[in-house]
Amino acid sequence: MTTTAALSPDDTMQQARQRFERVLREQLDALPPLAPRLCEAIHYACLQGGKRVRPTLVYAAAQAVGASEDAADIPACAVELIHCYSLVHDDLPAMDDDDLRRGQPTVHIAFDQATAILAGDALQAMAFRLLSDETGEPGPQARLRMLQLLSSAAGYEGMVAGQSIDFEAMGKTLSLEQLQTMHSLKTGALIRASVLLGALCSEHIDAATLESLRHYAECIGLAFQVQDDILDVTSDTATLGKTQGADQALNKPTYVSLLGLDGAREKAAALCEDAVAALSGFGPRADTLRSIARFIVARNR
Fold first, then answer.
1. Can you give the pTM of this predicted structure?
2. Confidence tier at 250 by pLDDT (50, 70, 90)
3. Are 154 and 174 in contact (CB under 8 A)?
4. I need a surface site. Which of 17, 105, 217, 245 has the fewest CB within 10 A?
5. What is the CATH number of domain 9-298?
6. pLDDT attached to residue 4
7. What percent of the chain has pLDDT above 70?
8. How far is Cα 67 from Cα 286, in angstroms, rounded to an integer?
9. What local confidence, expressed as pLDDT, does residue 237 receive?
10. CB of 234 within 8 A of CB of 247?
11. Half-sphere exposure of residue 108: CA atoms within 13 angstroms, side-chain side
């Protein structure tokens, strides 16, 4: 992924996305035809578009520390498989009960609830299977660190706990601190993992560099959710590719409900500035990360 300061955020993300889409499709097409309908649902869940922010962050962080794109391919796939699994399960009637995702019917609508549950289960397992393969780069020690990182971010210590808190918070009033804690787990944990997985593609990464990237990731993870909350109010279903106003309909606490629309926009902008400042010790190789931070708070879907 070649990046220069002249490239727009869309350009940098598109370059990474093109490579990633090819790698992801290769991995999905390699699945044996044991259960054709389930296999179709897995493809459907993963190949219906999407911003691909998380795999792009893996590539961008790898680039920032001088690691190769080849080393980033499987970690990028793993984190997106976890993300896709989480969307499939979040959309189920027992959770958010959504019928639209990425502009298409959700998996349980296009197939059925049982198939959707199994597809999510398979995607989660596939992520860890790919990441645990000892062949290729990075080496086994780095892969082990990646497995520990991703399993923590995807599980009780991260995304799952965040989703549980979110589910229990419907109809309740949370403080700003409680809201940030919830979203640092639900959304932020996997975004943070994406950046750190990319950094670990370099087997000589030092603690100070990791800490700078961690801070960057924490900022953009919260900024991503703040912008999502803004778009839930200001955008429309056709642009979002999912039901606009869903958070309001479910009476979920959001940054907009706590801070107001202008306050939420100021919060997103401040988080973006903080994220970019965290990269002050990096040179031009981190330009893609800087671009992604700005893209996150400027996007309209």
1. 0.92
2. low
3. no
4. 245
5. 1.10.600.10
6. 43
7. 91
8. 12
9. 72
10. no
11. 20
- Residue owning tokens 């062949």: 135
Pick from 201, 192, 170: which is nearest to 79 by CA? 192
Q: Taking the domains of the chain in order of start, what are their residue ranges?
A: 9-298
Structure confidence by residue, pLDDT tens digits, 118-168: 999 999 999 999 999 877 778 888 999 999 999 999 999 999 999 999 888
CA dist 106 and 190 (Å) reads 21
Distance of CA 117 to the CA centre of its chain: 20
